[in-house]
């Protein structure tokens, strides 16, 4: 694929509308410096210099799509708490429509707090509830999806295993999307794999891919076995296995296999890299890109985001610059 074609796809991101269904969270980053060990226990003392918040989980997918110029509609659940207010404020700041987010006062909003000192994550604290969501919430979310379908050009299922993406939701959501000829991109949780049948593309990392089909990836031979098994079991159009410093491998239904080398210059933090991959994949497919084109662009975006610390996002100018550099 040449640079001109890549530029054309990126320039169409503004015309894309993507629905993101999944586990919304708030990411809190406590930034600081360490200069001493605590006298109370053998642990470092972090002098806090800054606290920042950003949408996490499926919210990070939403954030990525919006920053890249796409129109995005999040569908998920929050509690009736201060964390929810902070998350909604972060989304509204970016002019993101939050009408598809259901409030359940019985459930806390997922909050992940990370302590970072000298560009290193030292600790993560999770506050969440992982049980399946009530039936009334699922019905409300599906009702919102039905209403929005005429506006949408692609759907992301961002499954972090917190309860939103249930078998009940998937058995109605996937046929709905297929009926409307919408590409469905899934960032999976392993124990839900049976219910993803009929999607367009799934984007597991190599550990997840191996676990789904009970075959560890240890070399090129096992990678090929896992990719083909996944394609067959999920009856999907494609499988994109992300492989860290080894790049990505795309398996397509027509038998094509494409290995895409990594473009990251240096890896600082892989937080949110999977979210970036599905975001760019969804935007590209929504703009008419072929699966291979969407995968190559996703790989460029992932290469940028792992060079940043925290739940980072990619901008259009960064993506264009990275594409330009690769073709010079």
From TrEMBL:
<dbReference type="InterPro" id="IPR011611">
    <property type="entry name" value="PfkB_dom"/>
</dbReference>
<dbReference type="GO" id="GO:0033785">
    <property type="term" value="F:heptose 7-phosphate kinase activity"/>
</dbReference>
<keyword id="KW-0418">Kinase</keyword>
<protein>
    <recommendedName>
        <fullName>Carbohydrate kinase PfkB domain-containing protein</fullName>
    </recommendedName>
</protein>
<dbReference type="InterPro" id="IPR011913">
    <property type="entry name" value="RfaE_dom_I"/>
</dbReference>
<dbReference type="GO" id="GO:0005829">
    <property type="term" value="C:cytosol"/>
</dbReference>
<dbReference type="Pfam" id="PF00294">
    <property type="entry name" value="PfkB"/>
</dbReference>
<feature type="domain" description="Carbohydrate kinase PfkB">
    <location>
        <begin position="17"/>
        <end position="312"/>
    </location>
</feature>
<dbReference type="InterPro" id="IPR029056">
    <property type="entry name" value="Ribokinase-like"/>
</dbReference>
<dbReference type="GO" id="GO:0016773">
    <property type="term" value="F:phosphotransferase activity, alcohol group as acceptor"/>
</dbReference>
<keyword id="KW-0808">Transferase</keyword>
<dbReference type="GO" id="GO:0033786">
    <property type="term" value="F:heptose-1-phosphate adenylyltransferase activity"/>
</dbReference>
